[in-house]
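Researcher: Structure for this, please.
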Amino acid sequence: MPAQKNPDIDRAAALRASWLSRMPEAAVTEAAACAKVRLVEDGMLIYAHGAACDGLYTLVRGAVRFSRTTADGQASTIAVLDAPTWFGDLSIFDGRPRSYDGYAYGETVLLHHSKADFKRLLARHPQIYERFLRSLSLRLRATFDMVEEAVIAPLPQRLARRLLELAKLKPSAMNSAVMPSGREVPLTQEELGNLLGKSRQSIAKLLRLWEEDGMVETRYGRVSIADPQKLMRVAYPERIG
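Model: Predicted structure, token format:
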């Protein structure tokens, strides 16, 4: 990561908005004191697949794209995370190398805790363990849900759910008064296909139909959700009549 002038970040506030929300002030103060600010330009590598764990990252601003490179050299997008959140904890807990390549998507601001500093925080403030245990449990549930979905859900339903998730539109928040249309998903049709294990052609065909129906608008490298409520009915027909 090249040396750059780091932005002026309120470390404590950023941590409270992420993995230290509702934690004791002593834990927040100590964590803020040892956090290093990193500004990462769009497309720059944060860490590589197979790299040794260098600590925990808090995503303060921007987004991170996780991918794996296939045998033919093509990068396959696995997930995109938006701020505020954190990542890199799996390798801390299981001691294994990084599972994916992580790239900044847009100009991205991170807080970094070294592995040693993070483990000291856990030892001094063991209540933090519960936060990460809950997070890992939710990820495991989500993984099981996605496996089940891949087996039984048709492609339109799966694609609609991924678009809504990537745009941060959730079923409980589907209200036109607070969730305006026009939410964009910054992924290509090929990347969406990679996420779902389908070809770009299958995704493109479905998006064309939805565009004709006024649900989405497609542009180079992104999809805009024009009618979230209609797309929600495709994604969750059992919840919305």
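Researcher: Any notable elements?
Model: Confidence is low (pLDDT under 50) at residues 170-182. Residues 66 and 102 are 5 Å apart (CA to CA).
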